[in-house]
Amino acid sequence: MASAIDATVPVTGSPTTASVRANFATAKAEISALQAGGGGGGGFSPGGTASQLLSGTGSNVNVGTGLTLSSGTLSGPTTVLPSSLTLRSPLQATDNIVVYDASNNDLRATPAQFVAYMLATGGSFTKPVAVTPVLLTWAATVTIDATASNNFRVVLGGATTFANPTGMIDGQEINLRLKQDGTGTRTATWGSKWKWPGGTAPTLSTAINAVDRVSGTYVQADDVIEATCVKAYA
């Protein structure tokens, strides 16, 4: 809001002069208006009814309305986004997003927090969502770090033991692309948590550059990965 304080009014002389009192009264009124949320100045205001939540920097400032602050407690819709915001896919670190979670009176103000909030509370994506695959370095024993991704790829350079992955969470999907190298005939054995239909681990394709895929779901209650293998993509 534009200030009505008159900077040209003399303020010299006794502090009880009319000019000083007038400017002081104007400043007090403007501050009260901002605290009440009626001045469009942004921020959360005690007792306000139209406070605004600002996000963005410089000229790229978007406004979301509908939040109030009463006795130190936020109230308003569960999710608040800047009214003119168009979400990109994927979200970028430079995106300015603010979400208010009424369940715990908390603000989430970064893309990562927004994504976590959406995944925790449900929702739908209108653009493709990809989980970046991790290229595993072949070794005689490969241990997948399940905190790194859901998708993993490895070129088999010899007989390989796939140990029990680390860092799994309940319900997590693990997808593993297995490719034979230029020699082929590489075999695989599996850690105790990998479980297969009928209790029999798969025999991999043996042709040079052959591709098989192993997919599984981690079941925390039984501490197992229920897996299947689709062979010989061509």
Describe the protein in words.
The chain is of the alpha/beta class and 234 residues long. The protein folds into 3 domains: 1-35; 40-121, no CATH class; 134-233. The chain is 12% helix and 31% strand. The protein is built from 2 helices and 14 strands, in the order αβββββαβββββββββ. The chain has helices at residues 18-35, 111-121; strands spanning 51-57, 60-70, 73-75, 99-101, 106-108, 134-135, 141-142, 151-156, 160-162, 173-180, 188-190, 194-195, 211-219, 224-233. The strands form 4 sheets. It has a 6-stranded mixed sheet with strand order 6-8-10-13-14-12, with no helix packed on it. It has a 3-stranded antiparallel sheet with strand order 1-2-3, with no helix packed on it. It is elongated, with a radius of gyration of 30 Å. The termini are far apart.
**Category by helix and strand content:** alpha/beta
How far do the termini sit from each other?
Answer: 67 Å
Beta-strand residue fraction: 25-35%
Q: Number of folding domains?
A: 3
Quick check: average pLDDT?
72
Q: N-to-C SSE series?
A: HEEEEEHEEEEEEEEE
Shape: elongated
Helical amount:
10-25%
Rounded Rg: 30 Å
Please describe the biggest sheet, giving its number of strands, its sense, and whether it closes into a barrel.
6 strands, mixed
Uncertain ranges: 37-89
Adjacency order of strands in the biggest sheet:
6-8-10-13-14-12
Query: Count of DSSP E strands?
Result: 14
Number of helices: 2
